[in-house]
Amino acid sequence: MSKDNQVLEEITSKEYEHGWNVNLEADEAPKGLNEDTVRFISAKKGEPEWLLEWRLKAFSLWEKMTEPQWANVNHPPINYQEIIYYSAPKKKVTLGGLDEVDPELIKTFEKLGISITEQKRLTGVAVDAVIDSVSVATTFKDKLGELGIIFCSFSEAVREHPDLIKKYLGSVVPINDNYFAALNSAVFSDGSFCYIPKGVKCPMELSTYFRINAANTGQFERTLIIADEGSYVSYLEGCTAPMRDENQLHAAVVELYTMKDAEIKYSTVQNWYPGDKNGKGGIYNFVTKRGLCAGDHSKISWTQVETGSAITWKYPSCILKGDYSVGEFYSVAVTNNYQQADTGTKMIHIGKNTRSRIVSKGISAGKSQNSYRGQVHVMKRASNARNHSQCDSLLMGDQCGAHTFPYIDVENNSARIEHEATTSKIGEDQIFYCLQRGISEEAAVALIVNGYAKEVLNQLPMEFAVEAQKLLALTLEGSVG
Amino acid sequence: MLTIKNLQAKVAEKQILNGIDLKVNAGEVHAIMGPNGSGKSTLASVLSGREDFEVTEGSIDFKGKNLLELSPEDRAREGIFMAFQYPVEIPGVSTINFMKTALNQIREYRGLPSLDAVSFLQLMKERMNLVEIDQSLLSRALNEGFSGGEKKRNEIFQMAMLEPRLAILDETDSGLDIDALRIVANGVNKLRNKNNAIIVVTHYQRLLDYIVPDFVHVLYNGKIVKSGTKDLALELEAKGYDWIKNEVAVA
To answer: What's the ipTM?
Structure first.
């Protein structure tokens, strides 16, 4: 093994830093999944009858479905009866302020380096903190309320805004859409809801931090964001998880709905526990994220930085139904050790003059496998549709894999589709050049990788971009600190 | 400052350097000349710590330290700078960002605090003027899409930023037209002072019209076979390298 390989090995074998386990008194559902589990969850949350029916319908559909096998990932079969489907931190009283929040919870946030107190002071960031499936603290709510913006936990939305939930839940991702979406629909515990009224530009980034906290608890978050005519919102989702041995299943559903002239910008930084150096443990992340550009001139932009999880199966997509609507997907996916990622996007062009742009940057290190899977579909009616896709792969070392699976279906001759793909390796020459300037190997790798991912990182809101850069460095670099 | 004794080195089992002796003092400029394949670039690579080159014999002392025991980055932090013959491209990383990282890592090694953004910018502006480089170039991704001249000027700008004790210019003149050569050489001359030393590795004499050396050494078959003053370079220019080869053969 050359010295360079050794360096790469060292750099890429860094242990996960955010490993801890907070002992919140969990309020759990019994293990396993059947109709009773669904009823338990619904009852626990005091849901209306129609939502229970909706869940049960999803459950019966899920029972008839089989787990998809087409993704380029391998894992032992998941025993869905070994999972706890509901777990909530105990809430003794209704919280009036941060001082009333469980101090353990505050500690968790402090370990993450992002305390709520700090977040409050940060300009323009409202935080809806989701820990173990139940929202505990929501900030800036009053200020948003003045503008008519609704930003709350999903459960609260079910209670306070049942009409909106009834109308839009499942409107973008139907309950039978896919195996994991059906599962989520049956057992989702909580999540976030956001509604931006007509003509309102949300003045701050809306942000949610997710944590997975109790052992053996599947996380089934549900997010629904609706941007009414002419409105705008930028939404941030970020997560880290404590170290754990058992694999944890996570199957979230995110639905975005934009009306005429509206825009949603959705950014994710994902840093769930990826498993240890030998591939033991880690989160299984099977997520369905989809946005519907329902109105003309509407826009949905997905930006994701994916560094965590043992397995990632995720395709944030855009259905471009409105004429002149725009879909964007910017992604950095990093895999290390034995991580597997099969991620990409779907751009479905239905409306006329619709445009989409895909920028995907994969980085593989260790013995990991990193796949880009993207579909561009131009339907008959979609005249003058345009798409530009750029898929780059960066390899570190010689034991990892990068794969690209582009699918292009064009049913309208006026479409213009461009696809570019590159694969490169971090060059020894590049690293030596940095070393010769006094830059350490680790810093050199961070510099090169961040440079490579810059086009995507630039899409993130400022405070998130900094966090994302740190994460990239953390995921790929050696044993600093 | 630098003392090389009986330096022998090989790359991929091929012996390239066969016993080099060289002493460089602060304030001096040494030119290393020689025909292709004589070992000029190997010497530069060994000094900078490139791993493909294996030192089989000899020693290198730099400011009282055993250079061969230092990692490439620590050599840089101790004050060795190499202006590369073929500077690499690093997409997405601006020269400014690159230099900020380098400078602060070097400062950390020397126990100095990081430069804040304002002081860094101030320093950068000052050095930019010194080597006549445009800020727009420094904001672009490092060397990406740069012309040959721009790359070399960027190397000298980096040298100006890092203020090395010993700078090695590896074939800095290659691929430069006369105007670019003049600008690069002017930059180097402005950086010359009594505390630092420069080793100019070159095939041709013309760079030495602009960067006038105190000593000229001729490398042939991995050995310094002749040393002299700048006149030696002129003699080489007039007579070619065959003259040296013949002289070595006779001896």
So the answer is: 0.96
